[in-house]
Design a protein that fits this description.
single chain, alpha/beta, Rossmann fold, 4-stranded antiparallel beta sheet, globular
Length: 366
């Protein structure tokens, strides 16, 4: 394990706080300092012994850090980068946790900070926010994308990759432009689609709100992510604008093709459209089989240790609860819980949640 003496945080909310807690767990002797505009957050992080030094401004406390995590809202990044530049030394690595990478890489290039910067995107999160909801296992077994700058030495990339892996996350190295296109397709587009579908139903519902009251099952499952923070998604759309526009153009073109197949009653094309999507969807790790339908699942936090999943499966089996699927979620950007357990019916799902809570597991129901 690396000898890491000092780490700084700019922003210590849900993601920053979770990373800090993970570092405290695996590197208990590391000195950690944090700046945050919220004094209550700093007080709580200090009280819980997650950080050693609380800062209300970015000052000399940030000198001599091995790593500095930039975990502030993306709109503040430019100002913070300029301040942090004064405290960088040749061996310090600056990283961030944003879900859009091109904009910050461009700022890093403009400020001539490439030799010290490795972008980061932990694909974990929650609909809840703030340090009060941070937990060390949030990034455990979650994909953690690294986007190294062109001028950062390979040995620094290797060391940071090993550091992230030591926190039990799953590091994946990508170019920042490739990252933004991929997340544009698998994360940003689905959120836009979900929000659009919800708004369509809202705008076309009748005065009795029959659509709203009848909306359940598949509709609620595929639109759940529309409940995410509108401010965050506003920023993401603006920061990843070029990729999102390109992807939306291609998606709209596909919708037009599908519409025309329906207009022309092209039976084989319509069948192929659904058959292709079903086969690809079923090939995604952890995916459920068959067409989209209501899923009965709970999400559970477990510690990464031998026999953890087996223990839960044994508890459920001993109480005659049948499992449909069980597995670790590696992309948890908008899910709570490390483990996803799917059941055949709602009654089993509810019974399992109550049982696991009885055994003091932290459970999130969907």
């Amino acid at each position: 394990m690396q000898q890491i003496k000092k780490i700084g945080f700019v922003g210590i909310g849900l993601i920053g706080g979770s990373i800090a807690k993970a570092i405290r767990q695996y590197y208990p002797d590391c000195e950690m300092i944090a700046f945050d505009k919220n004094r209550e957050t700093l007080a709580l992080a200090t009280q819980e012994a997650v950080i050693d030094v609380a800062c209300t401004v970015i000052d000399d406390n940030f000198q001599n850090c091995d790593y500095i995590f930039l975990c502030a809202p993306v709109s503040y990044n430019t100002a913070y980068l300029k301040q942090l530049k004064n405290y960088m030394h040749k061996d310090c690595i600056l990283t961030d946790v944003g879900s859009v990478k091109t904009s910050i890489h461009e700022e890093i290039i403009a400020l001539d900070m490439e030799a010290n910067f490795i972008g980061g995107h932990p694909m974990a999160g929650s609909e809840k926010s703030g340090f009060v909801n941070a937990k060390a296992m949030l990034i455990e077994n979650a994909y953690y994308i690294l986007t190294p700058s062109a001028k950062v030495p390979q040995e620094k990339v290797d060391a940071y990759n090993a550091f992230i892996a030591s926190l039990k996350a799953l590091p994946v190295v990508l170019g920042y432009e490739e990252h933004d296109y991929i997340t544009g397709a698998i994360s940003h587009l689905p959120h836009i689609i979900a929000a659009t579908l919800v708004n369509y139903v809202k705008d076309h519902d009748d005065q009795n709100e029959l659509m709203k009251h009848l909306a359940a099952g598949g509709f609620k499952d595929i639109t759940r992510i529309a409940s995410s923070s509108p401010t965050m998604w506003q920023h993401i759309c603006l920061k990843n604008k070029d990729n999102i526009v390109k992807i939306l153009d291609e998606y709209i073109s596909l919708l037009e093709e599908t519409k025309q197949s329906v207009v022309d009653s092209k039976e084989q094309e319509i069948f192929n459209f659904f058959d292709t999507s079903r086969n690809y969807r079923n090939s995604i790790p952890g995916g459920s089989s068959g067409p989209i339908k209501r899923m009965f699942a709970v999400y559970c936090d477990i510690v990464d240790e031998a026999g953890g999943i087996a223990t839960i499966a044994t508890i459920l089996a001993a109480n005659n609860i049948n499992l449909k699927n069980i597995g670790i979620i590696h992309n948890r950007e908008f899910e709570e819980g490390v483990l996803r357990i799917e059941f055949y019916d709602e009654a089993s799902s509810k019974k399992a949640a109550e049982l696991l809570q009885k055994y003091r597991y932290i459970v999130y129901e969907r």
